[in-house]
Design brief:
By secondary structure, the chain is α+β, with helices and mostly antiparallel strands. Among the domains are: 111 residues, Endonuclease III, domain 1 (Orthogonal Bundle); 33 residues, no CATH class. Helices cover 41% and strands 16% of the residues. The strands form 4 sheets. A two-stranded antiparallel sheet has the order 1-2. A two-stranded parallel sheet has the order 3-4. Strand 6 and strand 7 form a beta hairpin. Helix 5 packs across helix 7 and helix 6 crosses helix 7. It starts with a helix and ends with a strand. The relative contact order is 0.07. Pfam families: Integrase_H2C2. InterPro entries: Integrase_H2C2. This is Integrase zinc-binding domain-containing protein.
């Protein structure tokens, strides 16, 4: 999604009377595509909070975000929190606020889950919270992991089929080597003094 969006943004940029870009996508273009989708997700899921902050109005009384002292930074909604003096990055102090029901957020969760080699809910949530604060994040991560095919295969229960009876040759008493299986190995090369000789391995199984 981010790469497709980055190509579209480059096309729109090349339509303007500016220096045209024709090389491979850069990390800055991928970052702009990510910022675009974060802005879209925030405006679609929490428009009332963004509108109140843009007009310098108090947040709605029923809003659960009011206690986080939210603010806008470059049109992105971030949480204030109480980590202003913590020795961490600015993104960790003021994470971006997202809603777990948005499709972009679900893709972000799935990407993080795969990047962490299909780890569990706690690890994925901890990794995401270094940059994002997802509302109902634990529930959203559980839904994404529940739809993860490798995780479902790993957690699948063993089959309980009834095994077929053993053949008569394996359960009938008989003298040794009355029924014998023979197996040959591929030609091997063994050194005899200075010359190489071809040898074979013959295996008899009773």
């Amino acid at each position: 999604l981010l790469r497709v969006t980055a190509w579209i943004l480059r096309y729109l940029n090349n339509c303007k009377p500016k220096p045209r870009l024709s090389q491979y996508l850069t990390s800055d273009e991928i970052e702009k595509a990510r910022d675009y989708w974060i802005l879209v997700a925030q405006k679609q899921c929490i428009p009332a909070v963004i509108k109140a902050l843009e007009t310098i109005m108090p947040l709605p009384a029923k809003s659960k975000i009011a206690r986080f002292n939210s603010f806008l930074q470059e049109n992105h909604l971030r949480l204030g929190g109480r980590l202003q003096f913590a020795p961490v990055t600015s993104e960790e102090k003021h994470p971006l606020l997202l809603d777990g029901s948005h499709h972009f957020v679900q893709l972000l969760i799935r990407h993080t889950h795969v990047r962490l080699h299909q780890l569990g809910v706690r690890t994925v949530l901890s990794e995401l919270r270094s940059n994002y604060w997802i509302r109902r994040g634990r529930e959203a991560i559980k839904r994404v992991i529940h739809r993860c095919l490798p995780c479902r295969l790993y957690k699948a229960t063993r089959g309980t089929q009834i095994e077929a009876p053993l053949p008569a040759d394996r359960v009938t008493p008989c003298i040794p080597f009355s029924i014998t299986g023979i197996d040959f190995a591929v030609p091997l090369y063994a050194r005899n003094c200075k010359s190489l000789d071809t040898t074979h391995i013959e295996l008899f199984a009773c």
